[in-house]
Specification:
The chain is of the alpha+beta class and 437 residues long. Among the domains are: 117 residues, Pdz3 Domain; 173 residues, 2-enoyl-CoA Hydratase, Chain A, domain 1. The protein is built from 13 helices and 19 strands. The protein has a 6-stranded mixed sheet with strand order 10-11-12-13-14-19, with helices on both faces. Strands 6-5-7-8 form a 4-stranded antiparallel sheet. The longest helix has 18 residues.
Length: 437
């Protein structure tokens, strides 16, 4: 939806009366729009938190107000209701640190940086401004509303780029730069001072693959921009599909590509279909039917014939895809848990705060693809597999490898698909990369 032009205060980033007015407007909008605001906290608890924050506003500068607002909105406890992290404004948020982070199974790494701090690339983050990385990650995770805790983990590499977040969390250094303590691949421990740059004018960034020069590059499933593509691997008789966005392409619709893919499967010796939604953050639920119906009516709709690769960035309409595959087909999931819960609230509307211009996303509709008794916080993998930094830089994909090696010969087809969410793989736990509340 279009964002209305805010009536900005004369100096909105230093005006506590603007902070107080925006908090009041936001709380009113959240109560009016959100369909399940009191899932985690009672109305009295919300009112108490609101009153406490209003009382504290006179002592807050802009970064501390933004962080406090993050935490307040996150009380809704769903991944769609959040301060819009890519539309933050004001001091500390118009700039970013000149690096790029990525989180792997063995930690947070610098995977790209500007040439002047090229020595940081490939380092595992040990501390930020002298603070242990687990403390920093936990603080950053507290800024993101989530139903699946992996959704909060997924946003840490982005939220850590804002100097304002570190300032508001009392984790900043003595200046605008960030001091990173890094464990390097050769075992050395180094400290690198990372400068800031304008958020909308990022500089040149060599990547870890440029530094290594090993002929590898970022995996296609992380960089593919087309909504749906597929290829055939004849050695394993597998069709591998990258489903990156739930939207139509510029040249072909999702339906057109899905129809071609299932026609190819029907006409050729294909024994396995693997659909990768690890980076799919969602889109339009109404476009999913061709993929769901094609899988359901395919010759591959049997244990070991259909696989969907899932992860922390599998979210929103991609989570709906996972849900509908689960309760319509014999699919098996591989990877790590999803970034959303099977029953969720979504369909966000954007509310722009009238005095400061901050944008807040607010969920407006419930989606219940699973049974009312399904209280899972995520969809778990039937075939657990994670990606380490070493896997990433050396071109290995343990998730795909686990699927290709999986023996499904002893599995029997589920007779009651509506109850598949009760299968043993969904009843376990998952070790989080850091403590997340």
């Amino acid at each position: 939806m279009a964002w209305p032009a805010p009536s900005l205060a004369a100096d909105p980033f230093a005006d506590q009366s603007a902070f107080a007015g925006d908090l009041a407007a936001l709380y009113s909008e959240m109560k009016a729009r959100h369909p399940n605001l009191y899932r985690l906290y009672t109305p009295a608890e919300w009112d108490a938190r609101y009153a406490a924050l209003q009382a504290k506003i006179p002592e807050l500068d802009w970064p501390h107000f933004v962080v406090a607002l993050h935490r307040f909105v996150a009380m809704a406890g769903d991944g769609h209701t959040n301060l819009f992290s890519k539309r933050l404004v004001g001091p500390g948020f118009a700039e970013r640190y000149a690096v790029r982070f990525a989180m792997f199974s063995d930690g947070l790494y610098v995977v790209a940086a500007t040439p002047d701090i090229r020595q940081a690339i490939g380092g595992r983050v040990v501390a930020v401004n002298g603070h242990p990385i687990l403390d920093v990650e936990r603080a950053e995770a507290g800024l993101t509303g989530h139903d699946s805790p992996l959704w909060a983990a997924a946003w840490i590499p982005t939220l850590l780029l804002y100097p304002g977040n570190l300032a508001g969390l009392d984790l900043a250094g003595t200046g605008p730069e960030m001091d990173l303590t890094l464990a390097m691949p050769d075992g050395a421990l180094i400290t690198v001072t990372v400068p800031i740059e304008p958020f909308d004018q990022p500089g040149e960034r060599p990547t870890v693959f440029d530094v290594l020069g090993n002929g590898q590059s970022a995996p296609a499933w992380q960089t593919q921009d087309l909504p749906l593509t597929y290829t055939y691997w004849p050695d394993s008789k597998t069709v591998y599909a990258m489903f990156s966005h739930v939207r139509n392409g510029v040249v072909e619709s999702l339906r057109q590509v899905a129809d071609k893919m299932f026609a190819f499967i029907a006409a050729n010796d294909v024994q396995r279909l693997v659909i990768d939604v690890r980076r799919n953050g969602g889109g339009n639920n109404h476009l999913l039917a061709p993929l769901i119906d094609g899988a359901r009516t395919s010759k591959l709709n049997r244990p070991g014939g259909l696989y969907v690769l899932i992860g922390r960035q599998t979210f929103s309409a991609a989570q709906n895809f996972v849900n509908r595959m689960e309760n319509s087909t014999q699919v098996l999931f591989a990877g790590e848990p999803t970034g959303a819960s099977p029953n969720l609230v979504c369909e966000t509307e954007t509310f722009r705060l009238p005095r400061t211009g901050l944008a807040v996303l607010i969920s407006t509709r419930r989606w219940q693809d699973s049974a009312p008794g399904d209280h899972r916080i995520w969809t778990m993998p039937d075939i657990p597999a994670t990606v380490s930094f070493d896997d990433y830089v050396n071109g290995r994909d343990p998730v795909i490898a686990a699927v290709l090696a999986f023996d499904a010969s002893r599995l029997q087809p589920a007779r009651n698909l509506a109850r598949r969410w009760r299968r043993p793989s969904q009843q376990g736990d998952w070790p989080l990369p850091l403590p997340i509340d």
